[in-house]
Amino acid sequence: MFFDSHTHLGSKQFAQDLPAVLERARAAGVSRMVAPATDLTNARELLAMAEKEPDVRVAVGIHPCDVDSVSGEAWIDELRELARHPKVCAIGEIGLDYFHAPPDGFTLEQWRAHQATVLTAQLELAAQARLNVILHNRESWEDLTALVLPFSDHLRGVFHCYTGTFEQARPLLDRGHLISFTGIVSFKNPGAMADTARVVPAEGYMIETDAPYLAPVPHRGKRCEPAYVADTARAIAALRGETPETVAADTTRNALAFFRGWD
Predict the structure, then answer these.
(1) H or E segment at 207?
(2) How many Cβ atoms from other residues are within 10 Å of residue 234's Cβ?
(3) Of all helices (H) and strands (E), which one includes residue 254?
(4) Helix and strand tally (H, E) in the chain?
(5) SS percent in the chain: helix, strand, coil, step 5
(6) What is the pLDDT of residues 202-238, one digit of tens each?
(7) Which of 2, 173, 220, 237 is deepest in the core (most CB within 10 A)?
(8) Structural domain boundaries of the chain?
(9) Cα-flanking dihedrals φ and ψ of residue 136, to 5°?
(10) Model-level pTM?
(11) 232 class by beta-carbon count within 10 Å (0-12 exposed, 13-18 middle, 19+ buried)
(12) Into which CATH architecture does domain 2-258 fall?
């Protein structure tokens, strides 16, 4: 059975047919799904949905592209309260994003500083709550790892949608962190991530869809769904010379150990 460790079930792209999306995932053998939030409103909506779905858990957090939605200190208290919900399995999606331009009212320097402030506050909360974290990186690798690695004795992170080399990942894996692969690994030219997926230790990675984005082959160009995590598993199995069942078992075991609240 497959574990989709990162699927944006709160996306507007699923607003009209989420029940059918979930049923297709279950029919494809996806037994567990983690839905990461992007902001506080999204977190509350996801928790209300997850209360009705036994195979869905939620990560609560402020995405780096949405940190303009918070200021002051009240937001971290609200996030701390949300993190106590029994359906919360991690803090996320959090991190740094240097790809997108700053929103109105921020210079580039101010925007990056605010992202770092919000990320650090969430890492501190995760450590206090004994929750692991789902991490977003886009053109921010050195700054992100510099902020995360000091927390390695208190929490683990999964660097989601990993596209880097194994040498980049090795220091993180050595500290107990994980990387996660999306459908990009199935593309014709997946870049360095193919070699990384081939050699990463079985205990060092998870799989995800990042739905509704990054649909794997043979669905590329379409809306991604959690059911397609099975196709990503098959692509990784081919790279590793393993069966899809082995990839499913390894990544499910890793996810169960990483996320809170699963039995």
Answers:
(1) strand 205-207
(2) 17
(3) helix 244-258
(4) 9, 8
(5) 50, 15, 35
(6) 999 999 999 999 999 999 999 999 999 999 999 999 9
(7) 2
(8) 2-258
(9) -105, 130
(10) 0.97
(11) buried
(12) Alpha-Beta Barrel (3.20)
